[in-house]
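Lab notes, practical 5.
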Amino acid sequence: MVDSENQQLAAKLGEVLQRLGWKATVAESCTGGAIAAAITSVSGASAWFDGSVVSYSNRIKRDLLGVDQRDLDEFGAVSEAVVRQMAVGVLNRLDANLSVAVSGIAGPDGGSDEKPVGTVWIGWAHGEGQEPVQADARLLHLDGNRAQIQSQAVKEALKGMLQIAESHCKD
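Output from the prediction step:
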């Protein structure tokens, strides 16, 4: 079930994307499709959302999204380098204008001293026409159980997408 705040963010995102004539896409790891679920809970989302990739394994990140194996080896899947590449990869492969990528440790296991449970990297990419793709990323340290961490990551991912889309609206 989609959190109502996340659904509202997705609905607002859809309104802005439709004004822009943009398409959005998502590459998810620790959220396991929850961002896509929030988006597709909005009636009419097919006008601005064609699909997403749940890239839970490094193999999928590498083979489908074009993440460099050296970066996976050196920095790990939960890293700035990897989420930036995931965001650009899904944007290009699914021919969208705006994307978000999420990779993190939702717990309750899997954390380390360096990357404790709740460590989440979110990356966004956008580009239009001949405009070069621009990518940004942010590190979050989220609290709560697995479901709470995932829901917070979805919220932050959607908020970032909305912020980028709104910054391109001319009205």
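Observations recorded by the TA: The radius of gyration is 15 Å. The longest helix spans residues 146-168.
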